[in-house]
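Subject: Interface between my chains keeps coming out wrong

I've been trying for a while to get a sensible model of this assembly. When I model each chain on its own everything looks fine, but I need the whole thing in one frame so I can look at the contacts. Pasting all components below, labels as-is. Any help appreciated, I'm running out of ideas.
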Amino acid sequence: MTLRTKFNPEAHELDAKFRLTKYTALHGGACKVPSDVLNRLLEELGGIDQFQDDQFLGGMIIPKMGIGLDSCVIPLRFGGLSLIQTTDFFYPLVDDPYMMGKIACCNVLSDLYAMGVTECDNMLMLLGISSKFSEKARDVVVPLMMRGFKDCAEEAGTTVNGGQTVLNPWCLIGGVATAVCQLNEFIMPNNAVPGDVLVLTKPLGTQVSCNAHQWLEQKSDKWNRIKLIVTEEEVEKAYQDSMFIMARLNKTAAQLMHTHNSHGATDVTGFGILGHAQNLVKQQKNAVNFIIHNLPCIAKMAAIAKCCGNTFGLLQGTSAETSGGLLICLPREQAAKYCAEIKKVEGHQAWIIGIVEGGNQTAKIIDKPRVIEVETLDDGTVQSVPPTTTSRRPNHPKAVVQEPQKVVLQQIPQAVQEQPDLPVVSQQLPTIIQQIEQTPASMHQQTICNITPVTLQTSQQVQQVIVEDPQQYQHMQQQAQYQNHH
Amino acid sequence: MTLRTKFNPEAHELDAKFRLTKYTALHGGACKVPSDVLNRLLEELGGIDQFQDDQFLGGMIIPKMGIGLDSCVIPLRFGGLSLIQTTDFFYPLVDDPYMMGKIACCNVLSDLYAMGVTECDNMLMLLGISSKFSEKARDVVVPLMMRGFKDCAEEAGTTVNGGQTVLNPWCLIGGVATAVCQLNEFIMPNNAVPGDVLVLTKPLGTQVSCNAHQWLEQKSDKWNRIKLIVTEEEVEKAYQDSMFIMARLNKTAAQLMHTHNSHGATDVTGFGILGHAQNLVKQQKNAVNFIIHNLPCIAKMAAIAKCCGNTFGLLQGTSAETSGGLLICLPREQAAKYCAEIKKVEGHQAWIIGIVEGGNQTAKIIDKPRVIEVETLDDGTVQSVPPTTTSRRPNHPKAVVQEPQKVVLQQIPQAVQEQPDLPVVSQQLPTIIQQIEQTPASMHQQTICNITPVTLQTSQQVQQVIVEDPQQYQHMQQQAQYQNHH
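Reply #2:
Try treating it as a single job with all components included. I did that and got this:
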């Protein structure tokens, strides 16, 4: 992977200490108004942006959707066409103005991609130039941000025509993305059924990595706290990884939603994975719950989050993300293929992180979710960190041992699929987690592992987990040690 | 006119001193980045938002337009349809949160109306909640602003579905308006021809009135300066008038653009009447100039602007406006009818303020433009202030004297229309100004006045003006006195 040279203010005749992220007190998705406050404000207003009356169009029920989801869908006057659009804007969370522009654009488009829309007809750019910028800073930074935004739009196959630019105390960037679609070109995000699984297309921890990087730069008290568990290099790497993850389009993810029969999706941003899962589950037509078991996180971010107590809610699913992945409901039999296909096209890994159960429209993360460490490899692709040591391998005879980096997939026996209410097996269902790593799609149908209850020694609570690989078990132990350590 | 009760913070359990406008340092359209700076930033970027390559669609050339105009026009994949959209956001300039919401919505829609688009398919709301609001202020003010925005959208026949809400040091409000149209449903704003006249649908001075009101409230030094020429009541009245003018939709103005064959329009906002005239003239296909002779201003605002030296550029056409009127190019023979029709439908006056000449894409205001004082009458309609005294009537035998409030219209002799290059007459063209006041449309064709050179005694410069009514001449003298006085 060709690393992007770190933004050097002096190369642009700016003060060496110039940092874009200093021109705001809130960063990225963290500037969102808490969803409970927002919902209350909207409630007082009585209905704006809320789920509105269904509208009948061309034989299909199209609800108008608002805050719960990221894009609205408006039936048009013209033969079966719908207007789908979204807006998002926030404040710099990385110091590289060009990358910031890309991230802002990518983040807006993500809302369309979550609807399975792959072609955006137009973008508008929203820009707040910090009133505290020097004239020089303004003349350097603003064109770079605009260029990044524009380049990202081009990469997505769309263009930027129009926008608004104002002076604002904080630097602000965002946009509007709009598509006019036929009915078969978008996917309403409300068709999850019990038995679906949840896939996530980018790892979590973008906010944590940006904050940690800032603490490192400032050598702040918080840095002194986390430096016991992470090195400077690890933080720099995570920040760099994070920047590229945030600037990566969810376009392929959206395209594959169509071919793999997605039942709905959302993108993960300011409310964190759990917040967005909750928004998505509330929109479902069927009585379902979302249960999240796995949290793929940029490497070391879980450790930092644990170390920082309540600062981030990364493992609770409430840490804000910026330009995060799509959280997609897929039929169980499609999920593995979906992940394999996205890997084939993009090279990046996607993760099965949970399941859809019958329920009452709530989303939750299990008590001790499995953290999957993720990093960007030298070839630029984003992958789960492969286990690197075999020391301290637990004695665990029932775990199925596979070659490292081979497929590890658990399938529900056919009988279970057909009789989901079978009592004994259904208790095990919530712990059936599938993970696909570096696996050709052809292998998915054959590999069946045993379901194995495991007790984590270092955990206070006894918890059922699935172990596909003893080395992953060891990884889990390390996670548990973090928890005990701090 | 039923006056809106002044917003009373205490009625909402807020501190008596709560003022929405204190939660920003820049107000309304004044937050725009100066157009020269913006153009330079865009130039560095090379083309974004600039006039782009023409795109051929369905036998019609549709240029993509950007910053020069307020809405972009994007040809869609579907049979002759175009996506037309716009965004605008800014900071509070009035203290009534509900009215602020209406104004913000109205201001965004105005960009569509300028394209002759009368039906908006969807709006998004952009909201920045001031991080300095108390929780109470937030819970009172934000729903009121949202309600105002939503009510205005309903009045326009559209709905708000979606948006973004962030925390920001300054309170921020705005939106996005989008329409999908057939080719005959919008009017490209680039077809002005020499001989057209320029019509303005709302008076200028919104920014001046809001600032003056703030000075009055704060009893600031600036208030001490202007109180010599305006009373508190006059400032309160102007502020109130201004609020309703800004909250009035340009929808009728847009509808009538179609019936009266408009050659293009723009809406007047942050760059002032001259700034937007310049943007509009630069987009024209024909080699034309715009010459502005008349400046309809909210009563007393010209006097305040003159008193304040360079603070505002009201008479120079550079004073920022918020949610201003449409500036419309109309065929000369349509302009009078257009103004009469708008008055018939809405009750409000529109003004012919200038002409289109052959030229090189520049816009200017004549050296001593005529200021037309405008106020809202008791019936809620916005009108030129009728002359109230006849004292000091100048001896001006050549001026055509009409009954006050009767039609005063000058038509170009047919010969001139057909031979625009006729040298002697063409010199007179720039001074041919038409004004329609409280006139049935049927009268427009008959009334022809003489063109009369007049010398303003109090002016340093000799200037040719047209006098339709001696009382207006007196009014001009008063204006000139302001200028000498300060």
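Reply #3:
Confirming on my end. The mean pLDDT of chain B is 78.
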